[in-house]
Amino acid sequence: MGNVLAIHVSAERGIIKTDVAEVKVVEGWGLEGDAHGGDWDRQVSIFPIEALDKVPQEKKAEVLADGYTENFTVSGLSLEDLSAGCLLNLGEAEIEILYIGKEEFKEKGRPYIVSREGRFGRVRLGGTVRVGDPVEVKKTPSK
C-alpha cells in the first residue's frame, strides 16, 4: 500500500499547480477546482514518485526544481502495479488509470517526467482525498 504525498490543483491549464492539503474528487469529473476536470478520459493525473529514478542524471535538478504539474504525487507502489487498466483507491476516491504518459513528451522541467511516467485517468467514485491518505491498487488488468 502506498500513500498520497501531495495534492495539486490549478484553475487554469498550462500553469504550475498549487499545493492543497485535501481535495474533493468528483465522480465522472475530476478534482474540484482543477482545470483538467471534465467529461473526458484524463480527468486526473497521478505521478508515482518512484518514477523519478527514470530521470536522466543531467535532467534531475531541473525536474526537481520545477513546480508540480500532476494532481496527486504518490509513493510506495510499484510502477508495474500502476499500469493502464488498474483501479486505485486514493482516500475515499476511486480512479481508473487509462494512460501512462502523454502522446507528446515534454522536454523541460517537471513535465519532462510526468509526460512520460504520469498516470492519467477517470474518476469512478468521488470522495475526499487528503495528504497522507492511503493509496491502494484495487485491481490490475491481470487480476
TrEMBL record:
Kindly give the Pfam families that the UniProt entry links to this protein: MOSC
Task: Write down the PANTHER family for this protein, in alphabetical order.
Answer: METAL-SULFUR CLUSTER BIOSYNTHESIS PROTEINS YUAD-RELATED, MOSC DOMAIN-CONTAINING PROTEIN
From the record, give the transmembrane residue ranges.
none
The protein's name in its UniProt record: MOSC domain protein
Q: Which residues form the MOSC domain?
A: 18-138
Task: Identify a single GO molecular function assigned to this protein.
Answer: catalytic activity
Checking InterPro entries in the record gives: MoCF_Sase_C, MOSC_domain, Pyrv_Knase-like_insert_dom_sf
Which SUPFAM superfamilies does the record match to this protein? PK beta-barrel domain-like (SSF50800)
